[in-house]
Hints:
Strand content: 5-15%
Shape: globular
Low-confidence stretches: none
Structural class: alpha+beta
Distance between the termini: 42 Å
Mean pLDDT: 95
Helix content: 40-55%
Largest sheet: 5 strands, mixed
Number of strands: 12
Amino acid sequence: MDSFAPTDPNFVANPYPAYAELRATGRALHHAPTNQWLIPHHADVSALLRDRRLGRTYLHRFTHEEFGRTPPPPSHEPFHRLNDNSMLDLEAPDHTRIRRLVQKAFTPRTVAGLTPYVRRTAAALVAAVVEKGGGDLLAEVAEPLPVAVIAEMLGIPAQDRALLRPWSAAICGMYELNPDELTATRAVRASLEFEAYLKELIAARRSNPATDLITSLISAHDEGERLSEQEMIATCVLLLNAGHEATVNTTANGWWTLLRHEDQLAALCADPALLSTAVEELLRYDTPLQLFERWVLEDIEVGGTTIPRGSEVALLFGSANRDPAVFDHPDTLDLTRPDNPHITFGAGIHYCLGAPLARIELTEVFNELLRQAPTLHLSTDPSRAPHWKPGYVIRGLESLMVEV
């Protein structure tokens, strides 16, 4: 258990040996520093994502006091107003109703229709890096692509799009383990600013409908039900936060992985048709979301260990995706891996709504980098070597300096 150290930079840089130790130790392991039950095996993670005796929230069944939990400070309320109305943190029946309505707006046709925009944007971003002989692949390609796509989808004007990434980064800080008060203060400020911005945009779309997703969310209805304004705001925030973190970190982490596996990169350059399996393997090999939390609403048993009601489980996605019970040679990068039931996008009712869009973005940006920058390599300046951000739950690089 000592090897699981989410605040240790060395662990964050490479948590996978520690995961192997956890899997060898047991199926449900109590971690005192975070007061969570760690679940490291693929079968258990998959089962508990679908188990209705657990929930992303407990407030649909219990008060904080009934559940043995201390309510969050009143000063954090703006963050929780956004977060607690989000599909990601709701359970049935609210989750069922909101997801059904959102899916009427966020259709497969909507996602597929974004492909030409994704392709043009990825091509332009990569071209700019190639033209100057290199740069920060994270800041100049990985980050701006999904933010631009989500902004385009929501109908956010071009001049306002620079606001989105800082808001998202501040809010997502609250998803790390035991965030401090400074992190909470930043998240509250970002929540208030983002909420106020979206209220104005929703009001504008009510007066002047457009062809964007916000207009579709306003008009989405089912058996007389519609999304409230707060639910629309929370949905838009979720689409930005959850909808770009996977793409950002899989792009940067994926290229960092490829640049350290020259044989695999050479095979991909020689045959870009491998991209479909390569994207899935990169999502598995270095998982962008390492941990997903759920509350235990009724006593459960995992591997002979009883986890009591009121506990929090930490489903270790990164460990599940390296489980040798499911993946042959799990620590080997294999871009041709044919059977790849990775759990990167979750499972059950909280399966990532934006997974199809993330796959399109990843395919297009990797394709453009392979096409325009076939000689892409890490910066030869040792001072510009990659470093990991301190966050563990949403795990990504600070930068990825490359040359072409």
